[in-house]
């Protein structure tokens, strides 16, 4: 059967391409539709359907642009209520794609409209299931997202629906089916997803905690909800965009790819209150950056961090970006709903300095320098911006955990007078955190370059978790 996974690592996202006899279908596409159009063109195929497993929270889907560009029909599962034309399929309804069949299996739980698609080949053999966020490899979808859009859909109610969907709809299927999930490790849509992006259903029944055969519904709900952290702030905003519709990415790019000289850039920032987002490397930002700009490097999990830390997707944004990367940055922002980029600094940061504009730097020390300074002042405060699970596994003794995922909640806790240190695992997140602090006028921050990775290499002693020190 001709089914292809199209994986995007920075979002840990998987879309799927299905083709038979010149007809194609796309499942859960990303915002930019060019790769799907090119894939179908390679097969000389026409995209007939765009199947959506649910209203996504962690990205804005490309279903509407695909419909506009190809005439494809959008398909949702039962109970979905989009604000645009789409097929709302019935449970067990079958769609034909060439000689293949796609059967709708309504699997509420992650959300109420969540749907799994059973793929059946030209010989009538069941091949695999495209599960969306219902079933991952090693995990299942978190049931606490829909309540941020519909308040009476509590996480307990959805968890119970998910238990029933898994037991009554998924687990009775054949063990040799291939599971094709919407996400892999690194996504915030689950707790413990595997790095593997496909598996057989039979193997998942053996190793996935949520598919344990003797698990009661109460045990399932308790285990599923245990350890859930709050979802990123942009999730409910993306859900609404996917329900209500959105502006074409082509229009957004046309407006956003706008070069501004340093004087125009500065004026735009002052007039609009735009966030200045610097996407260069850590070293470049540390050495010099526009005052009050926020660093989120393009070489990391750029879009998810932008979504987690910029609280409103309608926030105007101005970019400091390496030459030639403008289109990529705007696309990656729009993937998570940030459609209000106003332009970018023409000539980059060097042009800013060349115009004799004021700039700032970030103090950063090596682990060796930190050790010397800490011996001189052992009461200096140290903050660890990694996730709680990372901190619990090992951390610098005395460091306080202030996870970057929810960094805006911790801002009042940082000292405004005395110097303090900040670190993460390898240096990416700590520079993001430091830039946020400096944008709020807290300049007495010192970044520990290389973070825990460098500490371990230098022999700096680390301890495991003893007692809660997270500041709220």
TrEMBL record:
Q: Which GO terms describe its molecular function?
A: hydrolase activity; metal ion binding; sulfur dioxygenase activity
Which SMART domains does the annotation name? Lactamase_B (SM00849), RHOD (SM00450)
Q: Does the keyword Lyase apply?
A: no
| Organism of provenance | Pukyongia salina
Sorted alphabetically, the Gene Ontology BP terms of this entry are: glutathione metabolic process; hydrogen sulfide metabolic process
Q: Show the SUPFAM superfamilies listed in the entry.
A: Metallo-hydrolase/oxidoreductase, Rhodanese/Cell cycle control phosphatase
Question: Quick check: keyword rRNA-binding in the entry?
Answer: no
Per the record, a Pfam family? Answer: Rhodanese
Per the database record, which ranges form the Rhodanese domain?
Answer: 270-361, 376-464
Designated name of the protein: MBL fold metallo-hydrolase
Q: Which Gene3D superfamilies match?
A: Rhodanese-like domain, Ribonuclease Z/Hydroxyacylglutathione hydrolase-like
Q: Which UniProt keywords apply?
A: Hydrolase, Metal-binding
UniProt-listed InterPro entries = Metallo-B-lactamas, Mito_Persulfide_Diox, POD-like_MBL-fold, Rhodanese-like_dom, Rhodanese-like_dom_sf, RibonucZ/Hydroxyglut_hydro
């Amino acid at each position: 059967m001709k089914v292809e996974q199209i994986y995007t690592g920075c979002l840990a996202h998987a879309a799927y391409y299905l083709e038979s006899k010149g007809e194609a279908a796309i499942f859960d596409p990303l915002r930019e539709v060019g790769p799907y159009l090119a894939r179908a063109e390679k097969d000389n195929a026409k995209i007939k359907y765009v199947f959506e497993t649910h209203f996504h929270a962690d990205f804005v889907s490309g279903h509407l642009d695909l419909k506009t560009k190809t005439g494809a029909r959008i398909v949702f599962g039962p109970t979905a209520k989009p604000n645009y034309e789409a097929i709302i399929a019935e449970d067990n309804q079958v769609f034909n794609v060439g000689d293949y069949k796609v059967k709708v299996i309504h699997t509420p739980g992650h959300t109420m409209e969540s749907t799994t698609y059973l793929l059946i080949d030209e010989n009538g053999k069941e091949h695999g299931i495209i599960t969306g966020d219902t079933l991952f490899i090693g995990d299942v979808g978190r049931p606490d997202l829909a309540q941020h859009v519909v308040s009476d859909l509590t996480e307990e109610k959805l968890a119970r629906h998910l238990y029933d969907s898994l037991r009554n709809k998924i687990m009775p299927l054949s063990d040799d089916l291939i599971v094709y999930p919407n996400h892999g490790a690194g996504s915030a849509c689950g707790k413990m997803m595997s790095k593997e992006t496909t598996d057989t259903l039979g193997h998942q029944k053996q190793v996935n905690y949520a598919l344990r055969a003797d698990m009661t519904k109460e045990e399932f709900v308790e285990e599923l909800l245990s350890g859930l952290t709050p979802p990123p702030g942009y999730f409910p905003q993306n859900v609404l965009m996917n329900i209500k519709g959105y502006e074409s990415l082509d229009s957004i790019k046309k407006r956003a790819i706008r070069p501004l000289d340093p004087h125009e850039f500065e004026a735009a920032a002052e007039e609009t209150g735009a966030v200045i987002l610097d996407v260069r490397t850590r070293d470049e930002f540390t050495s010099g950056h526009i005052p009050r700009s926020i660093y989120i490097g393009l070489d990391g999990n750029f879009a998810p961090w932008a979504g987690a830390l910029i609280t409103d997707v309608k926030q105007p944004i101005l970019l400091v970006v390496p030459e030639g990367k403008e289109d990529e940055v705007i696309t990656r922002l729009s993937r998570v709903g940030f459609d209000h980029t106003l332009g970018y600094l023409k000539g980059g940061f060097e042009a800013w300095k060349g115009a004799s504009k004021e700039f700032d730097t970030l103090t950063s020390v090596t682990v060796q320098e930190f050790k010397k300074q800490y011996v001189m002042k052992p009461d200096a405060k140290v903050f660890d911006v990694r996730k709680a699970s990372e901190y619990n596994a090992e951390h610098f003794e005395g460091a306080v955990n202030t996870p970057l995922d929810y960094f805006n909640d911790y801002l009042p806790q940082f000292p405004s007078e005395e110097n303090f240190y900040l670190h993460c695992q390898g240096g990416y997140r700590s520079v993001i955190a430091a830039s946020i602090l400096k944008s709020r006028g807290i300049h007495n921050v010192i970044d520990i370059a290389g973070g825990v990775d460098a500490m371990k290499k230098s022999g700096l002693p680390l301890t495991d978790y003893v007692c809660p020190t997270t500041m709220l």
